[in-house]
Specification:
The complex is a heterotrimer. Chain A is an alpha/beta fold. Chain A has one domain: P-loop containing nucleotide triphosphate hydrolases (Rossmann fold). Chain A has helices at 44-51, 54-58, 79-82, 102-112, 117-130, 146-158, 176-193, 204-207, 228-232, 235-240, 246-256, 268-281, and strands spanning 2-12, 21-24, 27-29, 33-37, 62-69, 72-73, 86-89, 164-168, 196-200, 213-218, 221-226. In chain A, strands 7-8-9-4-10-11 form a 6-stranded mixed β-sheet, with helices on both faces. The longest helix of chain A is centred in the middle third of the chain and has 18 residues, at 176-193. The N and C termini of chain A lie far apart (46 Å). Helix content of chain B is 38%, strand content 22%. The chains are: A alpha/beta, B alpha/beta, C mainly alpha.
Chain lengths: 282, 273, 274
């Protein structure tokens, strides 16, 4: 069942001469974990913002084509209506937290929706727990590390219980250990709560193992779609400049020399296991 | 040459960030300073251009202690590229931006013109000469910032987390650029937590943890030691992870490069046949 | 500036910190009103001692003293102005026989007058300092909201406070970045020094604008404007200690009014010279 569907979506920012995204047609199904990737400037950030209505309602400009999210036509609904179904987590953790304590930030969206206090309290506690930050509830954001701040941002979006969560390069400012923690939280939300995830990422080596679908954009259009395995072995993806994980590169180098592993690996565990089999076989 | 002798540094809040660092950076080296967030990496390199002064111990740049020289004077030899270009861009045109430091250092008009031309070409931004830096994209602004630091041709270039937010192609370009600088005998020091990038470049690495240097050496030695890597809370490169998994099969564990990995595996398979 | 240190909130738990900000503000305002009511040095001296028990209960002694220390310069200025002005333009409030200050008593009376005006200023600083030291910004924001100040203003206030340390850090980073390009901030004449701050101010302002754009995006994405009636996770409610403080404040005001109307307060001059 499609939760997001776009048809020939084209958008031009006000004052721009060329569209940032052109003729984009994608379908995202309920429960998908999609990675949206591509070189800088390919339009993935703009596309993300169409999913919750920031484009076109916040940025104005001209939007052509169709886009339906959670059954609603984006062009016809205000951002705060769409916010009930789609949550958006941004790249810079610092600039999404406004309150002076973590739990107040997590409650922000609920306060905006005029939720009664008791229900709010329960939701806030639940969201904090899901993001693994219950013990930080009364801390001010400035005292937290980047990774903790991003988890607060995730909890703040989660508290509104959206069906879809879009995350725009959430781990950019984090070190690999912090990034892993974020991906684990996001994966939990996808596998345990069934939330559809759209993750914009460059660091495919860390994120690929969670996804069931990859969309590669280039120069404003969708260049490729497929499973992580398909994309990583695609020559076109390599030419566009997608960062293929080393584990998969090893598979490709071996293949070129006539050594075939059982399947295309995406993670180091898969590669190691397949190599072990191969080496033991002889 | 930069010498760090028993460097201790504490912030005014009392936090002891560096607990006795000893290090020498030779001219023309490529050094990567790695470790978890909070290990003291940026604190250490900020001593190289005098932004921070030692609490005890000393830092010598080309033989002179940094304690008594101003940052502006040290900057003449040590260029520092900050993580966020938006922390330095302020001029009306890219040209002015690049000329800023040159003017501060008292270069002559003729020399300034020459250096600006050279820097614009080096970073491939000649077409933006008269453009306002605020009108450029993120990646372009990063190049303007870098150009404005290289313009005065410092001997040492320090880059703080240069790979953050960069896509794969941009990282490749950066790698080539650093190689170019090294070829010109410039010393390059990068602070990074991007293990894959470091694995590609294979520089000298110092691994820091909690204000101390855990170990230093070639990337292929440092990043493949599982105990130290765990202590420093970093994730080893993917190739290394694979080979560590297969260590019980007698394969070498100090591999970080995918080509070397392929060679070793092929050899192993041929041996079996 | 150390005077600002004396106003920064510190997160400590005490009876005073937990009082409702609206009640505390009421108390501080009444104290201010009383300081305006009385012109006698002795009365103002009494008023100065009133905030002290609050300072001790809240354990903010050091910071409070720092705020007073920061106000010293201005206090000296006020004293000097009042003294000099009163010397050259003696008014009926200062007893003088022939329109000029020439006897020791008259000098002392002038001194007392200037000291009283200075003390009035100090009482103001002292009481507001205690208020700000013991009230967290979000408590304050909450108090504003529950006092029916439009939510946009409360939100702007708490968000601004939340970003003060972030902007301070950013200013430091920008200064470092420009110093590392040869910018000398400490040398040069006055005009040159002002111009040297342009490379600091422009990135700071541009980044602040960028930041507010990102914040606006985040706000919209979390259903800002979804409902006219906004609810709040927290609620301020008056507790026993608050009611007690209200009663104390009212009694204090009644007592002050009574004294002001019916009991003449002697001046220090008359006590010493009579």
């Amino acid at each position: 069942m499609a939760v997001i569907e776009t048809k020939n979506l084209t958008y031009t920012y006000p004052g721009a001469t060329t569209p940032s995204i052109q003729d984009v047609s994608v379908t995202i199904n309920k429960g998908d974990f999609v990675i949206l990737t591509g070189p800088s400037g390919c339009g993935k950030t703009t596309l993300c913002r169409t999913f919750n209505g920031l484009v076109p309602h916040f940025y104005n400009g001209t939007l052509e084509g169709e886009i339906t999210v959670a059954g609603l036509k984006v062009a016809d609904h205000k951002i705060h209506e769409l916010a009930r179904h789609v949550g958006l987590v941004f790249q810079n953790p610092e600039n999404q937290l406004f309150a002076l304590s973590v739990e107040k930030d997590v409650a922000f969206g609920l306060e905006n929706s005029a939720m009664p206090r008791d229900e709010m309290r329960k939701r806030v506690d639940w969201a904090l727990q899901m993001a693994g930050i219950s013990e930080l509830s009364e801390r001010p954001p400035h005292e937290l590390s980047g990774g903790q701040q991003q988890r607060v941002a995730i909890a703040s979006v989660l508290s509104m219980q959206p069906d879809i969560m879009v995350l725009d390069e959430p781990t950019s400012f984090l070190d690999p250990v912090g990034a892993e923690k974020i991906f684990e939280v996001i994966d939990d939300l996808n596998k345990k709560l069934g939330i559809t995830i759209i993750l914009v990422e460059h660091r495919l080596d860390l994120a690929a193992k969670y996804a069931n679908k990859v969309i590669v954009m280039n120069e404003g259009t969708v260049a490729l779609t497929g499973t992580p395995r398909e994309i990583f072995t695609s020559e076109e993806a390599r030419l566009i400049g997608v960062g293929i994980p080393k584990a998969t590169k090893l598979y490709q180098h071996l293949k070129r020399q006539g050594v075939n592993l059982k399947a295309v690996p995406v993670t180091t565990e898969e590669t190691a296991n397949m190599l072990r089999e191969l080496l033991k076989r002889d | 040459m930069i010498e760090v002798k028993d460097l201790h540094f504490s912030y005014p809040t009392g936090l002891e960030a560096l607990k006795g660092i000893n290090l020498t950076v030779e001219d023309g080296e490529f050094l990567a300073v790695m470790g978890q967030n909070g290990a003291g990496k940026t604190t250490l390199v900020k001593h190289f251009n005098g932004l921070l002064k030692p609490t005890t111990g000393e830092v010598l740049v080309n033989g002179t202690s940094t304690k008594d020289i101003s940052v502006a004077k040290l900057a003449r030899n040590v260029g520092f590229v900050f993580q966020n270009p938006d922390h330095q861009l302020f001029s009306e045109s890219v040209e002015d931006e690049i000329a800023f430091a040159l003017k501060n250092f008292g270069f002559e008009e003729e020399t300034i013109k020459k250096q600006v031309d050279w820097a614009l070409n080096l970073l491939d931004i000649e077409q933006y000469r008269k453009t306002s830096p605020f009108m450029l994209s993120g990646g372009e602004r990063k190049r303007v910032a870098l150009a404005s630091i290289l313009a005065w041709d410092p001997q040492v270039i320090v880059m703080d987390e240069p790979t953050i937010g960069q896509d794969h192609q941009q990282k490749e370009k950066l790698q080539q650029f650093i190689m170019q600088l090294n070829a010109q005998k410039k010393t390059v020091v990068i602070v990074t937590h991007d293990v894959e990038f470091v694995a590609e470049c294979n520089p000298r690495v110092i691994l820091m943890s909690e204000g101390n240097i855990l170990v230093e050496g070639k990337a292929e030695d440092v990043l493949t030691n599982p105990k130290l890597v765990a202590q420093a809370s970093i994730v080893p490169p993917q190739i290394t992870q694979i080979f560590l998994e297969l260590a019980d099969l007698g394969l070498p564990t100090d591999v970080i490069d995918v080509h070397e990995a392929t060679k070793i595996l092929l050899e192993r398979l041929r041996r079996r046949k | 500036m150390s005077v600002f240190e004396g106003f920064k909130f510190r997160k400590v738990s005490s009876v005073i910190h937990n009082l409702d900000p609206r009640v505390k503000f009421f108390f501080v305002c009444i104290l201010f009103v009383m300081a305006i009511m009385f012109t006698q040095l002795l009365a103002l001296a009494v008023l100065f001692f009133i905030p002290l028990p609050f300072v001790f209960l809240a354990r903010v002694n050091r910071q409070w003293l720092r705020s007073l220390r920061g106000a010293v310069l201005l206090a000296v200025f006020i004293f000097a102005t009042n003294f000099i002005f009163g010397y050259f333009y003696p008014s009926s409030s200062i007893p003088n026989v022939d329109g000029a200050i020439d006897t020791p008593m008259e000098y002392f009376a002038l001194f007392e007058r200037a000291a009283a005006m200075t003390l009035r200023f100090v009482v103001l600083i002292a009481s507001f300092s205690v208020f700000f030291l013991t009230t967290s910004p979000d408590h304050l924001g909450l108090a504003l909201q529950q006092s029916h100040v439009p939510y946009e203003f409360c939100f702007a206030f708490t968000t601004a406070v939340r970003f003060v340390p972030v902007l301070a850090d950013e200013a430091q980073t920008i200064m470092d970045a420009q110093k590392a390009r040869g910018l000398e901030l400490e040398s040069g004449n006055f005009i040159k020094r002002i111009r040297n701050y342009i490379p600091i101010l422009i990135p700071l302002i541009v980044n602040a604008i960028r930041r507010s754009l990102e914040l606006a995006e985040a706000m919209e994405s979390r259903a800002w404007g979804a409902s006219d009636k906004r609810t709040n996770l927290y609620k301020l409610s008056l507790k026993r200690a608050d009611i007690l403080l209200v009663i104390i404040t009212v009694l204090m005001l009644i007592l002050a009014l009574y004294i002001w109307l019916y009991i003449p307060i002697p001046s220090l001059t008359s006590l010493l010279f009579a």
